[in-house]
Write a structure and sequence with these properties.
The chain is α/β, with parallel strands linked by helices. It folds into 3 domains: 118 residues, Rossmann fold (3-Layer(aba) Sandwich); 143 residues, Rossmann fold, CATH 3.40.50; 116 residues, Homeodomain-like (Arc Repressor Mutant, subunit A, Orthogonal Bundle), CATH 1.10.10. The chain contains 18 helices and 15 strands. Strands 10-9-11-12-13-15 form a 6-stranded mixed β-sheet, sandwiched between helices. Strands 5-4-6-7 form a 4-stranded parallel β-sheet. Strands 1-2-3 form a 3-stranded antiparallel β-sheet. α8 links the parallel β11 and β12. α7 crosses α8 and α11 packs parallel to α14. The protein is globular and about 75 Å long.
Length: 425
């Protein structure tokens, strides 16, 4: 005999016991399925970290995510749904597909800015700024930028790098490889020779910032072939922190941590808002980098004068303490006046300026990457009071620390676009 209970109908057929769902529960399940968003992930340039960020949001919000293009490289013909996440590149079929679509779309790239779409992209100028600050902390005064790409993203990274160096009174060479009419099989050898010539001509020690990790690996190959010591003569920094590239070469490569998973997650969040009828933002949302993974390729202080090297090391290790020029001179083993003269000649800044620069760089890092209160950040970075930090920080950036944090995206990703357009950060 069967009986009805709150969960459904229970029937016993001989030794088989089976519970049929109650009609009310079945109807609720059908409604949930019908309300589920059907979203297409159509990336012209695939990266598993972007996919992971999108998939994490999809799981949290009960989407049905179609990832066919990620597996096969082909668009799923006949697909229909409520939204599309894409990263437009050069594929004409993907561009045509996006142009013809009538559902909300979010683009995770800047390659086709001629197509007006809501966008979530990396903060590429800030990536360049972090690269420059990483090299400046190590005392470099000679710099080059290398890319195989001259499109918008590469140019934004180059400008962030070069502008930060210019504010320190330093210049940067730009090495952009253009293969011309060479056959693909000839390009690697030609590019390696081309890079080697420029690396040999660069004053040493020098620092090279590469558009991405693959470009950094090309620079490393050219250094190894040309007999140039890395990082002692040439320090190298890439972007993306791709461990498959950075940790599988003779000298592991340092890299800026482009937050690709965060890019995918926030792109999905914007698409979700658009599918709910909310308006698109007027400007792209910018996702800040997560810092730098320092490996052997930049593990050096680019100063030949040993007392100045010791002084730089002391500043990097003791910026959080209440130290002054006299403490730095004592650590170097040189009289204060002699150290000040030598340090300025070697580094291009006074000891006091370098200490302030190191402290402010750390303040910015803590503002953007943690939720620590300003008073705690002041304590951790050698400023005696939050009021003094506020005074110094406002003079250096034009903003007090809390406003800098909000404007540059430390507590609000979307607001970073305004800060980037105004040169903030």
């Amino acid at each position: 005999m069967s009986h009805e209970n709150a969960a459904g109908f229970n029937c016993n057929f001989a030794s088989v016991n089976y519970t049929f769902p109650h009609p009310a529960f079945a109807l609720e399940s059908v409604r949930a399925m019908s309300a589920q968003r059907n979203v297409l992930l159509a990336l012209g340039s695939y990266d598993h970290r972007i996919h992971r960020g999108v998939a994490r949001f999809a799981g949290e919000h009960h989407w049905h995510l179609n990832s066919e293009m990620c597996r096969s490289g082909r668009l799923p013909r006949g697909w229909s749904g409520e939204g599309i996440l894409t990263a437009l590149d050069v594929q004409p079929d993907l561009v045509r597909f996006v142009r013809a679509a009538t559902v909300p779309i979010v683009d995770l790239s800047l390659n086709r800015q001629d197509i007006p779409l809501p966008r979530v992209v990396g903060d590429h100028r800030r990536i360049g700024r972090q690269a420059a600050e990483h090299f400046l902390e190590r005392g470099f005064r000679h710099f080059a930028w290398h890319a195989n790409d001259a499109r918008a993203v590469a140019e934004l990274r180059r400008r962030g790098f070069a502008d930060t160096l210019a504010r320190a009174g330093l210049a940067c060479e730009a090495w952009i490889w253009r293969p011309g009419g060479r056959r693909p099989s000839d390009q690697w050898r030609a590019k390696s020779r081309w890079l080697a010539q420029r690396l040999q001509a660069l004053p040493k020690p020098a620092a090279v910032f590469a558009f991405r990790d693959a470009d950094a690996a090309n620079v490393l190959d050219a250094c190894l072939e040309g007999g140039l010591a890395v990082p002692e003569e040439i320090a190298i920094l890439g972007v993306d922190d791709n461990e498959l590239v950075c940790e599988s070469v003779r000298i592991p490569l340092s890299s800026v941590q482009h937050d690709l998973e965060g890019l995918g997650y926030h792109g999905a969040a914007l698409l979700d808002r658009l599918m709910r009828g909310q308006p698109a933002p007027a400007q792209p949302e910018l996702i800040p980098p997560k810092g730098i993974t320092a490996r052997r390729s930049t593990d050096v202080l680019a100063v030949h004068h040993e007392p100045s090297r010791r002084a730089l090391g002391f500043l990097r290790e003791n910026y959080s303490r209440n130290v002054g020029v006299a403490d730095v001179a004592q650590s170097s083993g040189l009289a204060r006046r002699r150290l000040e003269q030598a340090f300025r000649q070697q580094v291009g800044r006074t000891i006091h300026q370098e200490l302030a620069r190191v402290r402010l760089a750390k303040v910015k890092e803590l503002l953007l990457e943690t939720k620590l209160p300003v008073a705690e950040i002041a304590r951790r970075t050698g400023f005696t009071t939050p009021q003094y930090l506020n005074l110094v920080f406002r003079k250096a950036t034009g903003l007090p620390p809390r406003r800098f944090r909000v404007a540059a995206g430390g507590t609000g990703i979307g607001a970073a676009a305004t800060a980037a357009r105004n040169g903030g950060g």
